[in-house]
């Protein structure tokens, strides 16, 4: 069985229009365990090597969760089954897309100008590694929905990769501190 051909999304596989290869706009989305909402940032990043990178914030917005959304996430964390986890994964993807698109509107930025989106997702459960065993973590917020709604490539599941490598699930903290 052969795979279906991949669709090319606007901006996928190449630097965003109007930007040299060593400079680009990047969006970041984060929602934390406090369940207060989604933080969205738009950064202009210049440089290639970690020691040469400079950046500036082009826009930042917080999108508070409504009481109903917060309670729904909490219900899934406290006892959701497969169906509930699946539904909230999709819904979180839609909510992340709403936040991103609102940020782009507020900053007057077209989706085609953004090179990529980094999405942490919503932490549902996190256990760092211990002497008894490896860590485990689960972030939801469907990155495929975010990519489809925005047309921008999405980088996600950062915490899982760090935990799989034996880390504590905060892979960007040392890098950001170094900048």
Structural class: alpha/beta
| Quaternary structure state of the chains depicted | single chain
Radius of gyration of CA atoms, rounded to a whole number: 17 Å
Unreliable spans = 1-16
Secondary-structure element string = EEEHHEEHEHH
Mean pLDDT rating: 85
Instruction: Please describe the biggest sheet, giving its number of strands, its sense, and whether it closes into a barrel.
Output: 6 strands, mixed
- Helical amount among residues, as a percent range? 25-40%
Termini distance?
46 Å
How many strand segments? Answer: 6
Question: What would you call the shape?
Answer: globular
- Count of discrete alpha- or pi-helical segments spanning 4 or more residues: 5
Please indicate the percent range of residues in DSSP E strands (runs of 2 or more).
25-35%
